[in-house]
Amino acid sequence: MKITLTKAQHQVSNSKKRFRVLISGRRFGKTYLCITEMMKYATKPLQNIWYVAPTYKMAKEICWSNLKVLLNEFNWIEDLNETNLTVRIKKSNSTISLKSADQPDALRGTGINFLILDEFADIDKRTWFEVLRASISDTLGNVLFTGTPRGYGNWSYEMYLKGKQDEEWDSFQFTTLQGGMVNKEELEQAQMDLDVRTFRQEFEGTFENYAGSVYYNFHPVENMIDKQINWKKPLHIGLDFNVDPMSACVAQIEEDRVYFLDEIVIYSSNTDEMCQEIRDRYGTKQPIFIYPDPACRQRKTSAGGRTDLSILQNAGFKVKVKHKHPAVRDRVNAVNSRLKDSLGKRYIFVSNNCKTLIKGLQRQIYKENTNIPDKEEGFDHMNDALGYLIDYIKPLTLQAPFNIPQRWNIKKQRRYGIHQRTGTRYS
């Protein structure tokens, strides 16, 4: 059995530098590359190998199952700990451990021979500089940073530049297409769905400037419309559960266009009061769809052990909610792509009645030198409500079918495929 890599992956793997930085578009094949790099180092005796993701959940869902599949195929597993996400390798007695960066102090240690920081732009840079850097074995330890770009203000850009300037470092930048995992037709479909800046960042792997407005594609004239609620058509309501204020934006959908025609802002309130306000305003004649924060599934002591989801459902609303939160940047990018796509077409329109929503779209900015939306001024509540709705009906995903790349093992003349979503190899 033999591990095979694409041409772009080979370039990264073959670098002899101690510190490597890989910046690439989505679905480049970063996870598969990370796993094969860990296996490469695991062939050496007594290696301490760490894979660090922004959260424990990401480490387990993105890498753990795929790592076990490959190690089982090679019959390398000596011992496996599902709780600690640790595996010991036969013969070499090396150890591969998956970690999360959400509790940096838990990462303190010494003697790491090979370290991967995956999606490192989403990891606090102090985790690297103050914790992990000191844990790398002197002169022998190697590090691979991987991820999609997050803008010039993010530390990922600093590390990318360091890879171009420091003789111990190496930097690589690839588009999704160069990764060989996605065909040209699928990317053309993505370009039609996304706005220009989002497409460049997510699929061309370029650093984009995040200074200024979060919703930079909102235009106070072209995204505005003079339109009233049609009482014969369903209502679609994005809902944010913040107490001060609880915010809802009310829309109607016509073909691929979303018209925001009203808004509700209630201070010092709760979900029961919001349900009553929606019923008082809009009655019960037409269907009402609610798109809440995914956190609505959590039980709350203040609500007698009920969940916000159950309250909405018991009130008679049709609730549309994802099982988990999307990344904030995915939700923001989804909204920007509907405010104006790469072809200049707009799909979101806002009525003059929605004063709070308009103000939020115009005024919410990023925190200085970051890609984190600023919430200090309170413009985020109505924007989040809009984002939950848009991210559900038009998420930041590709619509074209998967293009599964083929990898050949010349020695055994067997053909292997790599599953696009999980990275699992199959014959």
Would you state the CATH class of the largest domain? Alpha Beta
CATH architecture of the largest domain: 3-Layer(aba) Sandwich
Topology-level CATH name of the largest domain: Rossmann fold
Order of helices and strands: HEHEHEEEEHEHEHHEEEEHEHEHEHHEEE
Rg value: 24 Å
Give unreliable regions as ranges: 398-417
What's the overall geometry? elongated
Number of β-strand runs: 18
> Please, what is the oligomeric state?
single chain
The DSSP helix count reads 12
Task: Report on the architecture of this protein.
The chain is of the alpha/beta class. It has 2 domains: 7-182 and 403-426, Rossmann fold (3-Layer(aba) Sandwich), CATH 3.40.50; 224-393, 2-Layer Sandwich (Nucleotidyltransferase, domain 5), CATH 3.30.420. It is 30% helix and 22% strand. It contains 12 helices and 18 strands. It has helices spanning 7-13, 30-42, 56-73, 125-132, 155-165, 184-193, 196-203, 271-282, 308-314, 328-339, 355-363, 380-393, and strands spanning 19-24, 48-53, 77-81, 86-89, 95-100, 114-118, 142-147, 169-174, 224-225, 235-240, 246-254, 257-266, 288-292, 318-319, 348-351, 406-409, 414-418, 425-426. An 8-stranded mixed beta sheet has the order 3-4-5-2-6-7-1-8, with helices on both faces. A 7-stranded mixed beta sheet has the order 9-15-12-11-10-13-14. Helix 2 crosses helix 3 (56-73). It is elongated.
